[in-house]
Specification:
The chain folds into 2 domains: 120 residues, Creatine Amidinohydrolase, Chain A, domain 1 (3-Layer(aba) Sandwich), CATH 3.40.350; 214 residues, Creatine Amidinohydrolase, CATH 3.90.230. Helices cover 33% and strands 22% of the residues. The strands form 6 sheets. It has a 6-stranded mixed sheet with strand order 4-3-2-1-5-6, sandwiched between helices. The longest helix has 21 residues. The protein is elongated and about 75 Å long.
Length: 351
Amino acid sequence: MDRIESIRERVSEKRLKAFLVSNIINIRYLTGFRGSSALLLITKKDAFFFTDFRYREQSLREVKGCEIIVPAGALLRRIKKTLKALSIPSLGFEFTAPYSLYHNLKGDFALRPIKEMVESLRIRKEKEEVRLIKKAIKRAEEAFLEIRPAVKEGVTERAVALRLEESLRRKGCQRIPFDIIVASGENAVLPHALVSDRRLKAGDLVVIDWGGEAEGYFSDMTRSLLIKGPDIENKIKIYNTVLKANRSAIRTAGAGVSAGEVDRAARSLIKGAGFGDFFGHGTGHGVGLDIHESPRISLRSKDVLGQGMVFTIEPGIYMPGLGGVRIEDMVYIGEKGSRVLTRLPKRLEII
């Protein structure tokens, strides 16, 4: 079914007269528009795409299924005019919309915030979306393998990150999904560490978290390495525990399984090994046009996994004074069950 038509059905189901989309990623998903400024108004019969002069020609090339409007003045002013011309007194809008949008509309219309109107469609990927995610994975994995020999004692975290970003660009990534993480030694205990000029040392655990891109779709993966050195037995134990947790969660994931159950599969194994206090984040998240989207793989998540979903599995252990390990793969639930999309080896590599 056409994506805008699917939203139109939901507009009717929720007894709305119209729905305003302000999230630019959701607008891209519904219309094909790749610019950075637009609003989309969907009524029971029509769809109006509003943008400014900068994107006039681009929208004519990219936008499908909408009447394109490029007003001379402010977009919201023209939207108000359109709503009044259609005699629409009430309006649904995205729960995540900026307050300024709400403030500008509240005096003229009865407003109703709606949660995840578009996101609930995006959670299940179509075949073409999965193809692009696989392409983003391939680019990311090829880039990693290309720079992997540069990860060694004496090199800085920043040097590794820069090489990886350059390789991703050469592989065709127009965007880098997020700031690449290269965290070594004491920095590896920070799940979202900032790259530093610290040099990799003997005995370091090194966490590398990066992603690729293909036509707006992202990938996300993490591998952890260990540099040869003295007294690394506990670090090897941590790594093998995370690897078992990663594999346990992947085995558990499938259509009809709750996201919380998948999280528990990883968390209970880590807790059973005595490291429960050192795994404080969720086990995974959806990936698509956003690097973090539904489903959320965590104990508190109410999501139930289903066909078409793409998500990460990324348990970790972060122990002050010792270091950190995270192993992250991407999983797809297809017609024949769950499948791991990432292909990089996971056996501990001691370099």
